[in-house]
Amino acid sequence: MQNFQAILDEIYIDAKNTIEKGSIASYIPELAHVDKTNFGIHLRTLNGSEYGVGNFETLFSIQSISKVLALSKAMSLIGEAVWKRVDVEPSGHPFNQLALLEIENGIPRNPLINSGAIVIADILLSHLKNPKEDFLNYVRDLAGDDSINYNKSVANSEKVTGFKNYAAANLLKSFNNLENTVDDVLDFYFHQCSIEMSCSQLSKAFLFLANKGGCMKNTAHLTESQAKRINAIMLTCGFYDEAGEFAFEVGLPGKSGVGGGIVALLPDHYIISTWSPGLNKKGNSLLGMQALEQFTTKTKLSIF
Ligand code: DON
User: Which Gene3D superfamilies match (predicted)?
Assistant: First the structure.
């Protein structure tokens, strides 16, 4: 049995001693206020043991990490029909790039880049009765935690400055790949991205993907095969044009967000969540990636 707490403590000291911490995302003005020295890790094993270090209970903006939960909800609602509207190939481009979308006739490369996530938001808007309320309840249910909420100032802040997402949604609409209006879809999408969670809440919310589709309460939210597919998409697309690097360094399916969070998991074994708001040039948490590389190297617990 490994001493996970001692390993997390070592990684924490290393991160605290790293001078280069990356830069905070400022294109969503509300995110720019966050203190760069925050750093937390939380590990949950499938037998229910938990380990934490640093700011692992502090709430932060999960941003693109929410795309995985939106995708899983869409898959549970319409199954394979999702793939008529979005592909499953890595884009090799930044999360908000639009050129491929135009060349590929409005079919986004995958559901984890912005354009793909906007299509998923459209699916949820069409199939949920009270989309924002129902989606939040879904996330609360996955995590077994009713305190999880949207941050309306973050959602509004992105609404005012989200020009590229408006461009993506308009392009999708022009290719008939949105059923709802651009404004309604983006209002939902900005709220979805504004959800706040701590590392320990994220580890609980993502448990179902390490647990063959069954959540904290052991309710089956996805089939085993659907959970497998989402993990494959996280591995190949979860870090945009750095997905190869993440697989190479860390060797786990995972997802990052511009709030500085990362969730990664080893099916049947554990879920690990990190938060460090400073990002590298590709928009992924600099110290979060470093910490996860150290964790899988020290424990030898990766999928490879
Ligand atoms: O749409 C956006 O740009 C943000 N709401 C989310 C982007 C994001 O988190 C990219 N991830 N690293």
Answer: DD-peptidase/beta-lactamase superfamily (3.40.710.10)
* Amino acid at residue number 278: G
Residue 27 to residues 51, 72, 113, 167: CA-CA distances in angstroms?
A: 33, 27, 17, 15
The answer to whether 276 and 291 are in contact (CB under 8 A) is yes
- Give the pLDDT of residue 75: 97
Q: Name residues of the chain where pLDDT drops below 70.
A: none
Residue closest to 292 by CA, chosen among 228, 245, 230, 236: 245
Which pair of tokens denotes residue 250? Answer: 């860390």
Question: Which residue, among 278, 242, 123, has the nearest Cα to 188 in the 3D structure?
Answer: 123
pLDDT for the residue numbered 252: 98
Phi and psi torsions of 28, nearest 5°: -105, 100
CB 263 within 8 A of CB 75: no
Whole-number Å distance, alpha carbon 242 to ligand 1 midpoint, is 14
The whole-angstrom separation of Cα 215 and Cα 210 is 9
Fold (CATH) for 4-299? Beta-lactamase (3.40.710)
ipTM of the complex: 0.98
Torsion angle of C-alpha atoms 99, 104, 110, 115, degrees rounded to 10? 50
Residues annotated within a binding site for substrate: 64, 114, 158, 165, 189, 240, 258
Element (H, E) at 188: helix 182-194
